Amino acid sequence: MTDTLIPDKAASTAALERLDLRTQLFIDGRFRDAEGGARFATENPATGRQIAEVARGGAADVNAAVAAARRAADDGRWSRMSPGDRKRILVRWADSIEANARELGIIETIDAGKPITDTVGLDMPEAATCIRWHAEATDKLYGQVAPSPEGTIATITREPVGVVAGVIPWNYPAQMAAWKLGPALATGNTMVIKPASTTSLSLLRIAELGAEAGIPDGVLNVVTGPGDVVGEALGRHPDIDCLAFTGSTEVGRNFLTWSAQSNLKRVLLELGGKSPQVVFGDVTDFEDLAANVALAIFWNMGENCSAGSRLVVHRSVKERVVEAVRAELANWPVGDPLEPATRIGALINRGHMERVLRYVDIGRREGARVVVGGERILEETGGYFVPPTIFDNVRNDMTIAREEIFGPVLSVIEFDTEAEAVALANDTPYGLAASLYTNDLNTAHRVARDIKAGVVGVNAYAEGDMTTPFGGYKLSGFGGHDKSVHAHDQYTETKTVWIQLKPAG
Ligand code: NAP
Ligand code: MG
User: Fold this and answer.
1) Residue 437 Cα, ligand 1 centroid: separation in angstroms?
2) Which CATH number applies to 3-271+476-494?
3) Which pLDDT tens digit goes with each residue over 435-458?
4) Rounded to whole angstroms, what are the CA distances from 437 to 233, 304, 373, 409?
5) CATH tag, 276-458
6) pLDDT tens, residue by residue, 162-202
């Protein structure tokens, strides 16, 4: 049974009154307080008001969670369970996330400021889809037999790395967690996972649903708490075999240092981006183009690692494209994230809103022109709302074109030739995603080939689906990919067993 029908505001408000939020650490199959009982507040970014206090995990809690995950890894309760049984449990869990999508989506909306239409309609079903997709692969992963000489047999198999830690961002809290949980658990690992402090609530409930679905104690542990305490303790922990991080490049690079200084744990990093949307002069369907361009930059308030924050557009169509995107904004109402019509909710917190507005000021000072937006709105709600903002006359060396703003701010940059377009697209330290728009098949293939990014969408803002890998070039990533069977490689070790056959007699 699924529950992805978007509730109206009255239904959400009524549901909220009944909600019994999970706010403790989840270790070894049960909820418990942090050692010493410390807690921290989490707020609703659309009202600025506190919703709950969450356990503030510390080093001792990380140790307890890692010890539980280690015991579960070593005794094989999960890794040696028959793959078919592991699959059944994970599929049951995915079904349960989907069946509880409304409750989980409401939790996500009040904790993250994301529109209810996205959390209930997309984040939770997608998280479930991800876990189910990997679950279904569990009993379909074959090993190999090598072409070794006569008298020998050599098998090449994949084994779980052991204990995997996940450190997760706040922009798609459930989905980003699922991108780690799905492949790591399906391949037989145990986990300790840390959600972002601003958005801890949905993952705690999702973990509880996992236990109810039959995930054995100790296999999935959640430690909430500050990044510089819990995140760093995980990064430095000698008994974690692999650490998968999604977040900013700035924080992410520390994990490589901590790995080098501790046990050389495998480190997988999905990081930031400054993705180009390249529009060639031969485009014709401006309405469809504008819908895609707006989705690329304004979806999730622009708090999206693969946001298309640079619109690199041919001079001959620039005015029409900018005008079409501006007109498209009529379809992007900003406001109360619990209202189903809302497409743009609140930014994650005051500090982040101020950071986004600072970038807008810098853009103005450096000579770019605000076409629309650029000021905080709905301040009377107490929430952190910034409307879609478009800057024209941007040069690619301006700060707003170089740094990841992580907000609803689009920079429009002109070009004349294809070579110039490709150079502009690649002139960034990042390389996560890109999109390009043209009616010419040759241009599409050439430019898709030449752009240095992990995912290139042609004539659409697209990141593929569960069947395709997701990860970035350059400062956008390190060590592996989320999604698809490629994600399995990063959570498994390769083992060779070489068997010498004795002659008969
Ligand atoms: P962030 O500040 O880097 O935080 C990510 C996670 O790291 C959070 O759990 C955070 O915990 C933790 N953390 C923070 N400081 C830490 C430290 N000193 N040591 C260890 N862990 C620490 O990123 P964010 O603001 O949540 O997310 C936005 C960023 O994520 C953007 O750059 C975006 O592009 C990127 N992102 C990338 C992808 C991708 O797949 N490539 C997907 C989504 C987002 P606290 O919450 O407690 O600070
Ligand atoms: Mg919150």
Assistant:
1) 31
2) 3.40.605.10
3) 999 999 999 999 999 999 999 999
4) 44, 20, 25, 20
5) 3.40.309.10
6) 999 999 999 999 999 999 999 999 999 999 999 999 999 99
